Amino acid sequence: MLANLAAALFTHKSIKTTETKAKRLRPYAERLITFAKRGDLHARRRVLAVIGDKTVVHELFTEIAPLLAEREGGYTRITKLGFRKGDNAPMAQIELVLEPLTAKAKRAKPSAAKAAPKAEEPVEETPAEEAPAESASEETVATEAEVVEEATGEAEKETTAKAEAEKA
């Protein structure tokens, strides 16, 4: 069954099936694509032993493998589609990821991660003991007042710097 699903996936580039079959097909198809990326005779014969259809194997080795040559893995994508009428089986679409691998996607993740820590967050001190409830609330109020004073002080410095820049 998996060999037939893999052959259909390689022929049509995308198939609609149940979620369970799609999840079982993913590692099976990715292993066959990895063989196709090797491209030697032994790999071709191993894939042919599984699929059995020479035209599908030829298409896999000549059309699909060159498109996925730069990719190290993750050749397929599973998208959930909802439930099938009749038996209410969860459906999914499994497709080959044929888009070229972009360097921008790799660079975007680290820059987004670096941008997040730059945001200033007010620092709140938590008391070690919770027995004196009044002193804890006083410390919190004092901490909040300090944060507000710092924020207003920084805002005043920025406005004076802007005013001086406009005068110059």
TrEMBL record:
Biased composition (Basic and acidic residues): 154-168
GO molecular function: structural constituent of ribosome
One Pfam family named in its UniProt record: Ribosomal_L17
Biased composition (Acidic residues): 122-132
PROSITE patterns named among the record's database cross-references: RIBOSOMAL_L17
Statement: the UniProt record of this protein carries the keyword Ribosomal protein: yes
Alphabetized SUPFAM superfamilies for the sequence: Prokaryotic ribosomal protein L17
Entry GO CC: cytosolic large ribosomal subunit
Keywords: Ribonucleoprotein, Ribosomal protein
Biased segments, Low complexity type: 133-145
GO terms of biological process kind: translation
Keyword Ribosomal protein: yes
InterPro entries with a match to the protein in the record: Ribosomal_bL17, Ribosomal_bL17_CS, Ribosomal_bL17_sf
Segments of this protein annotated with the region Disordered: 106-168
Entry similarity comment: Belongs to the bacterial ribosomal protein bL17 family.
Name of this chain's protein: 50S ribosomal protein L17
